[in-house]
């Protein structure tokens, strides 16, 4: 059974969201602050975290920072009253898989959860490994190697790289990448994508060293593409 950790300091939100998620067959554990949630996280396996940001004792950002030190690719969604673009940008830069501002529809959150879990569910054995020398990417386990060395990527970085590897040479507009990876169209938050691309390029370059590999190229005025491996 899929286990969701729900974190919010408002009892009413915990109650109604738990009821909606439970009706879909999910196991839900609740916490009212980041420290309590972190204790739960350390004690049991969690498939998805849904967390508020502004909470007592430990806020959502500090909680997620602590979680990502334990599991770098942990999927999580922020639910919050912080509705400024700068807050969305920072949250997505942390690696958030979704960001929903309060007040929100519990039904909408439930659908977003179902869509996210469907994307990250491990695929059947034998169907998840993609080879694109010198890369090898296991979609089921969300693992990538470059020259047989593992890359430490966030979930969004993994999804971006997988998309580029499946479509070498194809130019993706920024708007298309937002729709495919974030399933939204925050064009005013385009810097979020730039940050993820920059981080991905940096990790690839550091691991490859002087060895050639296909690089993520900027196509000015159009978007990004995966180039050749001769440079």
Automatic annotation (TrEMBL):
Tell me the Pfam families matching this sequence.
Response_reg (PF00072), Trans_reg_C (PF00486)
The UniProt entry, under SMART domains, shows: REC (SM00448), Trans_reg_C (SM00862)
List UniProt keywords, sorted A-Z: Activator, DNA-binding, Phosphoprotein, Transcription, Transcription regulation, Two-component regulatory system
User: Where is the PTM 4-aspartylphosphate found along the chain?
Assistant: 52
The GO biological-process annotations, alphabetized, read as: regulation of DNA-templated transcription
Q: Which residues bind DNA?
A: 127-228
Taxonomically, the superkingdom here is: Bacteria
Record's InterPro entries?
A: CheY-like_superfamily, OmpR/PhoB-type_DNA-bd, Sig_transdc_resp-reg_receiver, WalR-like, WH-like_DNA-bd_sf
Positions in coiled-coil regions? none
Extract one GO molecular function annotation from the record.
transcription cis-regulatory region binding
Concerning CDD domains, the annotation shows:
REC_OmpR, trans_reg_C
Q: Which GO terms describe its cellular component?
A: cytosol; protein-DNA complex
The chain positions of domain OmpR/PhoB-type read 127-228
Q: Where is the Response regulatory domain?
A: 3-117
Protein name from the UniProt record: Response regulator SaeR
Q: Which organism is it from?
A: Abiotrophia defectiva ATCC 49176
Lineage, top ranks: Bacteria, Bacillati, Bacillota, Bacilli, Lactobacillales
């Amino acid at each position: 059974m899929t286990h969701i950790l729900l974190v919010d300091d408002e009892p009413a939100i915990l109650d109604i969201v738990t009821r909606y998620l439970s009706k879909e067959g999910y196991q839900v554990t609740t916490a009212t602050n980041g420290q309590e949630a972190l204790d739960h996280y350390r004690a049991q396996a969690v498939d998805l975290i849904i967390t508020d940001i502004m909470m007592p004792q430990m806020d959502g950002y500090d909680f997620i920072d602590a979680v990502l030190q334990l599991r770098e690719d942990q999927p999580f969604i922020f639910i919050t009253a912080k509705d400024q673009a700068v807050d969305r940008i920072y949250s997505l830069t942390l690696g958030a898989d979704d960001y929903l501002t309060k007040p929100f529809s519990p039904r909408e959150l439930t659908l977003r959860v179902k869509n996210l879990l469907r994307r990250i569910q491990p695929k059947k054995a034998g169907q998840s490994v993609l080879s694109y020398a010198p890369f090898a990417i296991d979609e089921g386990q969300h693992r990538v190697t470059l020259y047989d060395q593992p890359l430490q990527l966030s979930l969004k970085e993994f999804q971006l790289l997988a998309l580029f590897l499946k479509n070498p040479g194809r130019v993706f507009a920024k708007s298309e990448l937002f729709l495919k990876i974030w399933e939204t169209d925050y064009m005013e938050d385009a810097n979020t994508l730039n940050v993820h691309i920059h981080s991905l390029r940096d990790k690839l370059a550091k691991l490859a060293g002087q060895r050639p590999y296909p690089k993520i190229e900027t196509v000015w005025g159009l978007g990004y593409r995966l180039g050749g491996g001769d440079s």
